[in-house]
Specification:
- This protein has about 80 residues and is mainly β.
- The chain has one helix spanning about 80, and strands spanning about 10-15, 25-30, 35-40, 40-45, 50, 60-65, 70, 75.
- The chain is globular, with a radius of gyration of 13 Å.
Length: about 80
Amino acid sequence: MLYSCMDEGGFYKPHIDHPSTGMFSSTLFLEEPNKYDGGELQLLIDDQLLEFKLDPGYCVTYETGTPHQVKKVTKLSKSKKS
């Protein structure tokens, strides 16, 4: 399992996950969406850019070869920074 946390200014450029990670990839949301600005997961599927920013505990699962990125986290709430 690979995981990462985004701080203010964090993002992922468009990429595809390596096939060695398996047939599917998932992004699990751990923070309330109103606690940060930006940070949306974007998937490119059938020439459509789909955007997700879900409640904690929800995840998006997609085929490993799906192009995706995470938009820049532009602001964290003060309670998150402490």
